[in-house]
Amino acid sequence: EMGARTIAHSLETDGWDVAYLGGNTPILDLVDVAMSLRPSFVAVSVAMPFHLHLVKDLVQKLRDGDLRNTPVLVGGLAFHLIPEAIETLPDVFYAADCREAIRHAREFSATGLETMHNG
Asked: What is the pTM of this model?
């Protein structure tokens, strides 16, 4: 969870309120928290390639609910190992590092002030 925590701390340093959820947070729990907080965006870090399919499930559940317009930001080792994976996730933003995550966050800022980050 080192990468996820680094991004979360970087966003906090940039002035964002971050609700950090650990890497073992079930998708439905993450969606419930997002529905409650109404974040500007949801950020997800994926370290293990065999978890990439879960991102697609998460995005679908967000789109099916009241968060269909909430941007989803992804990153993590899995996307470095399998760069083409991002192409399978429509309407998802990718950040390779902290600077890109902050840049995207600032672009999303017109829609709110809070963010969630799932390790």
From this structure: 0.86
